[in-house]
TrEMBL record:
Pfam families: Arabinose_bd (PF12625), HTH_18 (PF12833). It comes from Inhella inkyongensis. InterPro entries: AraC-type_N, Homeodomain-like_sf, HTH_AraC. One of its GO terms (molecular function) is transcription cis-regulatory region binding. Transmembrane segments: none annotated. Keywords: DNA-binding, Transcription, Transcription regulation. This is AraC-like DNA-binding protein. Residues 241-338 form the HTH araC/xylS-type domain. Coiled coil: none annotated. GO terms for cellular component: cytosol. PANTHER family: HTH-TYPE TRANSCRIPTIONAL REGULATOR GADX, HTH-TYPE TRANSCRIPTIONAL REGULATOR VQSM.
């Protein structure tokens, strides 16, 4: 089982989830404003966090200059503060589940409603189950360890609360073993194992545990609500206006498909597919923006053609003149004189 994700949807982290980090930081004596500043952020987002901003916040939390005592075992402390309501709509859905296995299914299905930090999947081999979590991006060791600790400690905390008893683990498998494992061993009460994938290992029989606080009468309505929210979350956004806005802003720098895709957190191929789905192409959009800007410069200003070419991202005036003639049917000089205007 694996949660669904749309690689073209803007990556983000729910505000309720990010708030756990900010509250923990404040309780450790580091003002939120100080951490935000260290992350290069002017203020806390009013709603969801962009994934890049949140990852910058994680990086700031691992820096020694923020607090000498903050980084060690921070992920575990974040997980201990995790509550069902931190998961928003997914948290409400978990409260309606009758068994631990049913709750796991909802996590796998609706994890994208909470964050795009990574994705969970479940594997069962005989009587052993493994809940594997993979970050969406390859991170430095410090952020990777912090995030994995937070995710796994949070899952342990929520499962314990939902079931009303401690969920025993067979092992905690980590790509980056902690230098001082005592805190992990004390919290998870399980042996730590070096592995190529980060995973919680447990007896699959635990999935049959009944959840005493379950309210299955609410589940049909909550599932309908969650499915609707997931569909909205994974819906393809309108990429054309976003690409056009970036082209207009960065035109003088000579924007490319690669550079624009990177700003949108996409691969070049994904951006091409997204634009094609909207009946557009990157080069056509770039030409359109350049054409419009060129007409404005030529119509309302007296800038030399070489300078106009530079403002439009052309290295040479001759390349600009050739392109403009193809767009407009006349040379830039003739257009400026009024000979090519309709």
């Amino acid at each position: 089982m694996e949660s669904l994700a749309n690689p073209l949807a803007p990556a983000r982290v729910a505000a309720s989830y990010a708030q756990v980090l900010l509250q923990c930081i404040a309780e450790e004596g580091v003002p939120a404003a100080e951490l935000l500043q260290a992350a290069g952020l002017a203020q806390q987002p009013a709603e969801d966090w962009a994934l890049d901003d949140f990852l910058n916040l994680l990086q700031a939390a691992t820096r020694a200059e923020v607090s000498a005592d903050l980084a060690p075992a921070l992920g575990l402390r974040l997980g201990q503060r995790q509550r069902v309501h931190s998961f928003g709509l997914l948290g409400l859905l978990l409260l309606s589940c009758s068994t631990l296995g049913e709750a796991l299914q909802q996590v796998l299905r609706f994890e994208a409603l909470v964050h795009d930090l990574g994705r969970s999947r479940f594997e069962a081999r005989g009587d052993e189950g493994r809940l594997i979590w993979t970050p969406a991006r390859e991170l430095d060791a410090a952020r990777h360890a912090l995030l994995i600790d937070w995710i796994f400690a949070g899952l342990q905390q929520v499962c314990d609360w939902l079931s009303g008893r401690r969920m025993p683990l067979r092992a905690l498998q980590l790509r980056h073993l902690p230098a001082h494992p005592a805190a992990h061993q004390a919290f998870f009460r399980a042996p730590l194992q070096a592995a190529q994938q980060d995973a919680l290992v447990f007896d699959v029989g635990l999935l049959d545990w009944r959840l005493p606080q379950a309210d299955p009468t609410l589940q049909p309505a909550l599932l309908q609500w969650a499915e609707k929210a997931l569909a909205q979350r994974l819906r393809l956004p309108a990429w054309t206006p976003r690409v056009r806005a970036l082209l207009q802003r960065d035109l003088a720098q000579g924007p490319s498909l690669v550079s624009v895709a990177a700003q949108l957190d996409l691969s070049s191929r994904s951006l091409q597919r997204a634009l094609q789905a909207e009946g557009q192409g990157f080069q056509a959009l770039l030409d359109g923006v350049r054409h419009q800007q060129a007409c404005d410069y030529l119509r309302h200003g007296r800038l030399p053609l070489a300078e106009v070419a530079s403002l439009l991202g052309f290295r040479h005036a001759s390349a600009f003149s050739q392109a403009f003639s193809q767009w407009q049917g006349c040379s830039p000089r003739v257009y400026r004189q009024g000979g090519g205007r309709s």
